[in-house]
Amino acid sequence: MDTVQMFWIFSIFIAAIAVIGIYCIIATFNLLRALIGLELLIKAVTLLLIISGYLSGRTAVAQAIVITVIVVEVVAMVVAAGLIIGFFKQYDSLNVKNTRSMKG
Amino acid sequence: MAILIILLILTLLASLWAAMTPMLLRAAIALALTSALLSVLMFQLNSPYAAVFELSVCAGLISVIFVSVITLTHRLPLKEYLRRRQSRIYRFMYLPFIVIAVVLAMYFIRIDLNIMPSMTQSISDVRIALWEYRRIYLFGQIMAILAGVFGVLVLFKGDKED
Q: In a 3-state reduction of DSSP, which class is residue A30?
């Protein structure tokens, strides 16, 4: 199988996972589920980086970028989890509609 | 190649389960499963360091974070949970069809975007490197930015209940 065909097969699945992540963010009103959708989007991006590095023969560069993405992802998730817990303590709910009360 | 396609299908099914399951704890477990399958894919694609990071951090640490947050937030009363579950089924029942439509569209519509990275020597100008030889990375960056945009947009939704 040549590289272009392999890339298109991977890109189909990457796009599908990205669509699942975007739909999960759009169709939910629970903050934690939105975070899960965000995670799925980042996984699609990670897979795209890995397959592009594999097909171009630059796996070292791709791995370096992916490790950076994972580190940033962890920091973002930890901060978001802290915000969600604080939000829950304030409003006793994870419903995103309660965030509108913060608008000035 | 067959093993790669099997792993891709399993990853897709695990991510679909993470998005559609009504229980948050199962969604967190499905997310960990997605990370584990992605890690195996990375091992198959000659990226062992990224695979170890993905397995230990995403399948391990982030799953612990999710379970901790779920534990620290109270459960809904049963009546409220059943009412919201019904609403959730109506909103998520279209997702598998959308995924199938996207897969079929990408399979039959093949756009020549000239995005395959080429094996080039060192390039001095970052602009040339990014626009001419590494255009594929831009798609990943655009998706990451979209992830942040949608994450912010979720905070400004209308008055509906989950």
A: strand
